Predict the 3D structure of the following.
Amino acid sequence: MDWVPVVFVIFKFLVLGIGMFFAIKWHYDQGKKGRQRERGEVLRTAAKVAVGFVLALVVLAVLTFVLGRKLGLDLNFS
């Protein structure tokens, strides 16, 4: 009975290792197929996120100045 866990652990590592090899190979092959189209999609998404971030920053700045004026804070730059 002492050899059963050893055999099962070796078998488990063998099966998981083979499965991981084929999973990585499949994902690598899939990545090579649509690389050009994917690169354009990533660039468009990054541009959208950057524009959204800048708009959120502008809105936050405007709201900060509006709230500062309502509270009677002196917001002069001089």
In short: The CA atoms of residues 43 and 50 lie 10 Å apart.
